[in-house]
Amino acid sequence: MSKSYDVVVIGGGPAGYVAAIRCAQLGLKTACVDEWLDKAGKPSLGGTCLNAGCIPSKALLDSSEHYHRIAHELGGHGISVEGLSLDVPQMITRKDEVVKGLTGGIAALFKANKVTWLQGHGRLLDGRRVEFSPTGGGDPEVVQAGDVILASGSRPSTLHMAPVDGDRIVDSTGALEFDEVPKRLGIIGAGVIGLELGSVWRRLGAEVVLLEAQENFLHFADQQMAEEAYKQFTRQGLDIRLGARVTSTSLGKKNVVVHYTDSAGEHRIQVEKLVVAVGRRPHTEGLFAPESDLLLDEGGFIHVDEHCRTNLPGVYAVGDVVRGPMLAHKGSEEGLAVAEIIAGHKARVNYDTIPAVIYTNPELAWVGRTEEALRGAGEQIRVGIFPFAANGRARASDEAVGMVKIIAEEKSDRILGVHVLGPSASEIIAQAVIAMEFAASAEDLALTVFAHPTLSEALHEAAMAAGGSAIHIYQPKKRK
Q1: Of 32, 75, 290, 373, which sees the most CB atoms within 10 A?
Q2: Is 108 annotated as belonging to a binding site?
């Protein structure tokens, strides 16, 4: 007789493990099937985010930032260091320890909440049945579920002209495992992943060339912020080439030869390592049997409604495998919402207030709509901008670059978008998310007391600037 559960979750990443824990908290007998193996070949929860994405990349970004500041930025503070050395293997070891601690924490939470961890591959069959194939072999078994949550995540997109070999041509996971700093690093793609990885290795001394096919830098972000970010990144030594379409690659004896075209014609560069960072795609290979009749959309994502319900009764899908931004926090919120729905409660995810962050230095973060999108839609808006150059805490910390931008509706003053380029943008944006979640106006923020001196005062002043009353920058009066 096959095992049965109230809920079976396929996938143990931020969407899946959060859904499983919440289902268990709500009194549902829950199992989570996950096939991720760590570097040692052992099962590890957390999916791409904890094992090979969000967490390890931030660990290396932090390590590289410490090194760069000591090597290049502390002289003005009266601090000098002699005999500075770089130990890349130790950085990788620390990164792995951070990952191990967090993934082990999820396993402990599963145990505490009585979530059954099925270590292996899960495949949806018809009738809300899940085929489980254990890691390391063994006969597959079929488990019955009252409800199924598909949370299989995503995988790096590939390019046929730059096949990943795991040595000289790598994907984003491989770029987190270099044991020494490449002398010259090429990156295909100057989006979120490419910029973060490029920042790590540039700070550690690599010459970094990013080849971006799009003509506009960070075309998905507010363009005023993107243009300023481009200036900051190029000043740091990132060689960002826009409109650059890679046509072919070849392996030399000790390097990779990359051919690309742009508006000026054909070009050729040689790099020691090449990273393919052209986005991610939904991971649905082997996720479901054909007879299950699960419906995918034209992009290969699982088709769901506004409550993450698929076309199959009792089957839900969340996270990177469905529409919307591929962000860990978006997947987690969907996982929580679905757990509540299965338990008979009401739940929703407000997709209009999902923040996005690029963890470069300066960081770039935003929530809501861009100025270009709003003006293109004919919206009447007012814009308030405040530079970190006029913020006391940013100046004291030697981080006075970038700005905060608030966009509000002209008549109602309701905040429609907030964009932050600068220090701790990833933290500051949370205040904007809360404000927008409560339908706040720019005036609401302008009338709120912010501690001094803090970086968040820039958000306060940007809100005041939207109403023409900023204090610490001069705003010429508009002519009537």
Answers
A1: 32
A2: no
